[in-house]
Amino acid sequence: MKNILPIVTIVLALIVIWYGAAFKMNSTWTYDQAARAGTEVTFSDLLSDTMQQSRPLLPAPHQIASELWNTTVEKKITSKRSMVYQGMITLKTTLLGFVFGIVIGVALATVIVLSRVGRLTLMPWAIISQTIPIVALAPIIVVLSNAVGTGTLMVPKAIIAAYLSFYPVLVSMVKGLTSPDQMQLDLLRTYGARQSDVFWKLRLPSSMPYFFASLKVAVAASFVGAVVAELSTSAISGLGARMLIGSQFGEPMIMWAALFAAAILAGLLIFLVGSFEKAARHLMGGRAL
Amino acid sequence: MKKPVIDAQNVDLTFQTNDGPVHALKNVNLEINKGDFVSFIGPSGCGKTTFLRCIAGLETPTGGRLTVNGMTPEEARKSRAYGYVFQAAGLYPWRTIRGNIQLPLEIMGFPKSEWKGHIDRVLDLVDLRGFGKKFPWQLSGGMQQRASIARALAFDADILLMDEPFGALDEIVRDKLNEELLKLWAATQKTIGFVTHSIPEAVYLSTKIVVMSPRPGRITDVIESTLPPDRPLDIRDSEEFIKIAHRVREGLRAGHDA
Ligand SMILES: Nc1ncnc2c1ncn2[C@@H]1O[C@H](COP(=O)(O)OP(=O)(O)OP(=O)(O)O)[C@@H](O)[C@H]1O
Ligand SMILES: [Mg+2]
Predict the structure, then answer these.
(1) ipTM metric
(2) What's B137's DSSP letter?
(3) Strands B37-41, B20-32: parallel, antiparallel or unpaired by DSSP?
(4) Which of A34, A282, B165, B230 is buried most deeply by CB count within 10 Å?
(5) Which bound ligand lies closest to the C-alpha atom of B40?
(6) Which residues form the ABC transmembrane type-1 domain (chain A) (predicted)?
(7) How many Å lie between the centroid of ligand 2 and the Cα of residue B87?
(8) B82/A190 CB distance under 8 A
(9) pLDDT tens digit sequence for B60-100
């Protein structure tokens, strides 16, 4: 609870700055309108107008909050205008990509650690894969998976999310699986342990702290992947698509509400993964942090 | 005629390193009989660890003959001839103390029904009854080291190899553990190979003290202890003890000057 005060302070400061910026940026439009109508603008007019334009350059925080409220609590969640509905789609893509990413990351790390050939051939490719901008790759993935006949956009979107999320898992797992020192390995040798024993009883459990630490990064990467996929695959649903629609049709409120919905969802995901990490740590006999 | 449990004849070991060959062991001749408590003492780098690892089959001599229970060290390892205790306890932090002791039993394929009996027995031996459900971080360094000894004892090997097991502990804890180790040795009749840097520790524990010297690692003296098997801690003030300690020190100095 000690650290709540600095957080609140920062948030308050940000909100104040935001209001200031909204006032400044939206006032141009107010002045233009007034000039066109040939009327004078008083300061109080200016203040009230900049805070409630329907298509502001920068919506004020309370506008975004009420838009969010309207599109989450007030709307039926089956409605396409509901952020909950759109968020669920993004969430589904994120989680699917996250699971793919974990499976691929762990599998590749295992092959890399257990075989020399794997180490020499796979690792460079994994690194190169992350240097290709995902935005360039996204349409190709959509086209290819359509050609294979996956039907929906869900699969290519999840592949794009997985493409970003497997890498942190891979890197952490390689580090984790190779973390046991020579003494630990020698001890198992004195027991005449098989390679499979070394893997299941020593390498894998040793890698768990690394694995859990990578999950937080991976879930964030998967989320970014899901949103980017929605932005760049001409998808019509999901928070990313809402952002795009908002900006293309000049509906800043939709854009900003989608952005904040995305931020809240991402925060929620990271919090959930963090709680899971804590629980797992506890189960594995770790001391409380 | 009684055959030695560990028999080293002209054992040689040269490590090939990037900076050229390192002659770690030269012409090591040693016989260790069943029930012996053998200490290896010598300056850093004289090959104590290397020799112990050779006995354990973790390192292969480049020359000479080394047998354990009449087998090659490799075969002896596979027949679970020895338990090995490293300088660091190396307990798995994700397993309880019981879980850690259970590890060799799982790997060696002991039937599940026997696990509890083995674990209870060795926990008693190292005086950790009641700590089985604790995790390693909840134990002191000395207790962790005792747990790692219990782990090495769990599968009933005849030989116990220990590489500076108490090296990282303070003297008071060390004294206590030494006393307990002697009791354990008396109770189990195991053959023990024990590496140490401490002269009093070597003299107090051993029936046979092997003094080694470096470059190349070799044995300079083997001292058969004349101390009685029953050794209270204050035996260290006796004339006999001081005499043996003196001889060890002489041996170390001779190796140093050579
Ligand atoms: N795997 C290895 N490769 C190359 N050289 C080695 C290796 N292991 C040990 N050595 C060398 O062999 C010599 C003996 O080492 P060893 O570890 O047996 O000494 P030690 O008597 O146990 O020393 P300490 O008391 O410091 O533990 C040293 O010169 C060391 O550098
Ligand atoms: Mg050593």
Answers:
(1) 0.85
(2) G
(3) unpaired
(4) B165
(5) 1
(6) 87-277
(7) 8
(8) yes
(9) 888 888 888 888 888 888 888 888 999 888 899 889 999 99
